[in-house]
Amino acid sequence: PSAYNTPKQPVVRFKRNKHHKGSIYCVAWSPCGQLLATGSNDKYVKVLPFNAETCNATGRPDLEFSMHDGTIRDLAFMEGPESGGAILISAGAGDCNIYTTDCQRGQGLHALSGHTGHILALYTWSGWMIASGSQDKTVRFWDLRVPSCVRVVGTTFHGTGKTCYRSAVASVAVDPSGRLLATGQEDSSCMLYDIRGGRMVQSYHPHSSDIRSVRFSPGAHYLLTGSYDMKIKVTDLQGN
């Protein structure tokens, strides 16, 4: 029999029991792989110092942050040398703020306010930029150099048309060039938005239920979507 017919069973290299007091909703690696962040409905963000080579904790104490007053739905590390690879962003329910944390110093940096509904998704690009999707049916772009919201998508007119989300934005992603935003909504629609042009490119329904995750391929030729309908789909973005 071929190797494809007899796959090897995966080996668990590291396990941490009762890491949180509640369900863990989101996890993230730091760009250098030496920090592992988790967010939970116990309202805590934890950062675990980790050695990727030995696949084990380093022995240094975990960092624990309690700035959230609701479930943490998503978190991500800022990428790029500008942020030093240790700036963590996190958001979710409660006060609907996005919090930024310097994990090297172990201290909070910013509380970014503006959303009026629970934040369901975060995405970072270009070193300092953040996109956030919310139950308030908007996507907000944030620039940490300011730091503040620099654009709201979903409530304002752009050019000759209106970009309006009809339901909660459950997932967001930006292509590697920083030009195109993709969103997945709870009404099963997917929207493509031209960031530089400030306009919607297309809206379509690849699924029959909530779209909970969207991601571009490395060359942005394809968009991968995952849904509550138990399907994953790849959309060809090339051409028209």
Keywords:
Methylamine Dehydrogenase, Chain H; Thrombin, subunit H; repeat; 2 domains; single chain; WDR47 protein; 240 residues; WD40_repeat_dom_sf; mainly beta; four-stranded antiparallel beta sheet; five-stranded antiparallel beta sheet
Question: What can you see in these coordinates?
Answer:
This is WDR47 protein. Pfam families: WD40. Keywords: Repeat, WD repeat. It is a single chain. The protein is mostly beta strands and 240 residues long. The chain has two domains: 20-154, Methylamine Dehydrogenase, Chain H; 157-239, Beta Barrel (Thrombin, subunit H), CATH 2.40.10. It has no helices and 22 strands.
Q: Outline the biggest β-sheet.
A: 5 strands, antiparallel
The CA-CA distance between the termini, in Å, is 44 Å
Number of helices: 0
Which range does the strand content fall in?
A: over 45%
**Quaternary structure of the protein:** single chain
Number of individual domains: 2
Q: How many beta-strand runs?
A: 22
Order of helices and strands: EEEEEEEEEEEEEEEEEEEEEE
Helix content: under 10%
- CATH class division of the largest domain: Mainly Beta
**Low-confidence blocks of residues:** 156-160
What's the CATH topology label of the largest domain?
Methylamine Dehydrogenase, Chain H
Instruction: Label the overall shape.
Output: globular
